[in-house]
Amino acid sequence: MGEKTIKISARDVNVHYGDTHSIKDVNVEIGDKTVTAFIGPSGCGKSTFLRCLNRMNDTIDI
Hints:
It comes from Ruegeria intermedia. This protein is mainly beta. Helices cover about 15% and strands about 40% of the residues.
């Protein structure tokens, strides 16, 4: 068992909608052959974070 291979890495992710700071300083590393789940209450930013990772938020006009 050697080094962990990182397939997805995100550091210091921040998302703002106008004056609202929706996501603040999120860091995540997801390794090779890893199943990862983002869990939390409604409205906590799970979908927003995933949209940010795949750059879907780049198309939102604020």
